Amino acid sequence: xxxxxxxxxxxxxxxxxxxxxxxxxxxxxxxxxxxxxxxxxxxxxxxxxxxxxxxxxxxxxxxxxxxxxxxxxxxxxxxxxxxxxxxxxxxxxxxxxxxxxxxxxxxxxxxxxxxxxxxxxxxxxxxxxxxxxxxx
Length: 136
What we know:
With 136 residues, this protein is α/β, with parallel strands linked by helices. It is built from 3 helices and 5 strands. A 5-stranded mixed beta sheet has the order 3-2-1-4-5, covered by helices on one side. The radius of gyration is 32 Å and the shape is rod-shaped.
């Protein structure tokens, strides 16, 4: 008796299963993911006024690269600078406060100054920036 094996049929690879998996993954990530963290209300960022003339008057607080402070050219501690700004703002609440920070000064050194001066009554502050372009 002769036993013959059935001939093996060549199976055609189906890509349909893979397409289904990719489709389900795509739908899954679209449902659970956020494309953009949007605010629940309209947010319009401010417009920079580079190239415009600096407003005249007011006082200038300079912040060095390592966090040292100078108010109108006089080196002061943070407490002394805040006291002088408070004295100047009591007589003139609309006095412009200009903050001129070194490019290597960190944001954690500049932002507390803005908050502190707002608490002292400063109504208008200007952050001095350098327009983009070649550094001289």
